[in-house]
Write a structure and sequence with these properties.
Elements (H helix, E strand, L loop, with lengths): L21 E2 L11 E2 L3 E5 L3 E6 L16 H10 L6 E2 L8 E7 L2 H12 L4 E9 L6 E11 L2 E5 L7 E12 L3 E8 L6 H9 L24 E9 L6 E5 L4 H11 L5
Parallel strand pairs: 6-12
Antiparallel strand pairs: 1-2, 3-4, 4-6, 5-6, 7-11, 7-12, 8-9, 8-10, 10-11, 12-13
């Protein structure tokens, strides 16, 4: 089992001050759920920190925007201890779960190297539209990123990037499937793009499947980073964290479990 990479912070965005208030979206944008600006820490030491990122919170700032991000909130928190927050990988804004930061450039370089080599274990839980009849499998697709989207291509396309994941069915519902996913590669939006290409989009993912905008049982993408395991950059021991499903995801599962669920 193993996993995937990502980027670094924006130079221009200013950190937003954490507080006990909640970030409230505009009434007409149900994709932006309310979330606490107090970050939940899953693991921390002098080299790194792992947070439980809530859905709706950006991983890193948008240049020129004052919208809160995991990096901006964490940077302010660590500044008080004269430490830095350097992002190692990312998860989608409307996904939730374990997100790793390093505290020094040396530690970040060592961690990023692991993600580039696909050695960390990264497991996700997703709720998919429709019934996936094969209990387990490996998905391999080729994508070319165009704008904000991963466009499906053939293996012969020289500009296409290979995407691979493994999945196992956890629960079948009347018209949905709960799956556990192990990333092998790590493209942006990979899980969402691959299951959309398979014909089983992630519930709530209207980016790759516009019909999901009609979903009312969850106000975001039903995708959660549940497990992260990697080698500590200093001690060389394994660090393993589990991240529980948030209440909105558990609510979706309960609703899907109803006999009349569509």
């Amino acid at each position: 089992m193993r996993k995937f990479p990502k980027k670094s912070r924006s130079r221009t965005a200013k950190p937003d001050r954490p507080s006990t208030r909640r970030f409230s979206p505009k009434k007409d944008d149900r994709r932006k759920p309310r979330f606490s600006l107090n970050l939940s820490i899953l693991y921390e030491d002098d080299a790194l920190i792992i947070i439980d990122k809530p859905s709706g919170l950006l991983a890193v700032p948008i240049p020129g925007s004052q919208t809160p991000s995991a990096w901006s909130l964490l940077a302010e928190r660590l500044e008080k201890k004269k430490q830095k927050a350097l992002i190692v990988h990312r998860i989608d804004r409307f996904s939730s779960g374990a997100l790793l930061f390093a505290k020094t450039a040396t530690d970040r370089a060592a961690l990023v190297r692991q993600f580039l080599d696909h050695t960390p274990e990264r497991h996700y839980i997703a709720a998919l539209r429709g019934r996936v009849e094969l209990k387990s499998g490996t998905l391999v697709h080729y994508f070319r990123k165009e704008g904000m989207y991963q466009q499906l291509r053939s293996a012969k396309d020289p500009e296409a990037t290979r995407a691979e994941l493994r999945y196992s069915v956890d629960r079948l519902f009347s018209n949905a499937t709960l799956v556990k996913i192990e990333l092998v590669t790590g493209l942006q939006n990979q899980i969402r793009a691959q299951f959309s290409a398979l014909g089983h989009p992630v519930i709530g993912d209207r980016k790759f499947h516009p019909a999901e905008s009609a979903e009312t049982r969850i106000d975001r993408v039903a995708l959660h980073a549940a497990h992260l395991k990697f080698t500590h950059p200093r001690t060389k021991k394994m660090v393993s964290v589990e991240c529980k499903l948030p209440p909105d995801f558990n609510h979706l599962i309960r609703e899907l479990s109803r006999p009349s669920a569509g």
